[in-house]
Amino acid sequence: MEMYNELKKEFNKQLHPESRVLALIALFMALYGVLHLLPISVYIGGPGFITAAILFVPIIAYIFKPLHALLIAVGGSIIVFVLGLATAPVFGIFAIFMPVMAMGLGSIAFRHWIGKLGIIGWLLLEGLYYSIFGGTVLWLIPYAIVCVLMGFFVIIDFTELLTDNELGAEWFKWFFLASMCYAITIVELAAMNTLSIGVLLLPPDLWIYIFPVAMVERAVALIGSMLLIKALVQREDIGELLEY
């Protein structure tokens, strides 16, 4: 085991940082595409599926810097579109909008208060669009929860509302991680709602039936992504690989 650790350290030293980043981008791009083969729910409104890839969106936003997260979103979406998986048969090439919004804004929000404000702005804009062009007000509930959470973290960034000990506490780390994962899944959901109205023109009455199913899907995405992120960062060998 000691020899293995020595060899691993030597390998990591020899591996150029840029090569490691490119390898990680390619790996996660492929994983994101492959996970679309695993449906977890039927898309109500067309011949498509909600897949296990929704668990992976917050993970990519957490690990990768914004530009790299966007590259994975675009590359992975092209794979999904070419193979005709998930919601690609429903939205076509426009399906790329969902991971681009979620991974892009999510990656920035994990790192800077501007991203958190971006999430608030996007959900307010989408909520306005949604309210004008049809839908149930129930959708505004998760939007409002995310806006409050993101606003709370922005306030923390500019004030001394919490002490350094509180910010470093385990409970706060879990709370922040859960809030961010939830926000990212809702950002993706909002993008899907936009496409459902703008591309598919779904009737308002149908949203009443979609809402509870979507909330279960997002709960699965929240719990799954949060546990996977914690598992990744707690593994020393994987943690070293993901640091860049």
Would you mind describing this structure in some detail?
The longest helix is centred in the C-terminal third of the chain and has 29 residues, at 170-198. The model is unreliable at 1-8 (pLDDT under 50). It is built from 12 helices and 2 strands. Strand 1 (39-42) and strand 2 form a beta hairpin. It has one domain (7-242). Helix 3 crosses helix 11 (207-234) and helix 6 packs antiparallel against helix 10. Strands 1-2 form a two-stranded antiparallel sheet. With 244 residues, it is mostly helical. Helices cover 77% and strands 3% of the residues.
Determine the number of helices (DSSP H or I, runs of at least 4 residues).
Answer: 12
Helix/strand-derived class? mainly alpha
Tell me the overall shape: globular
Mean pLDDT: 80
| Percent helix range | over 70%
What is the alpha-carbon Rg in Å? 19 Å
Low-confidence stretches: 1-8
Calculate the terminal CA-CA distance, rounded to whole Å: 25 Å
Give me the side-by-side strand order of the main sheet: 1-2
Question: Describe the biggest sheet?
Answer: 2 strands, antiparallel
Q: How many β-strand stretches?
A: 2
H and E string: HHEEHHHHHHHHHH
How much strand?
A: under 5%
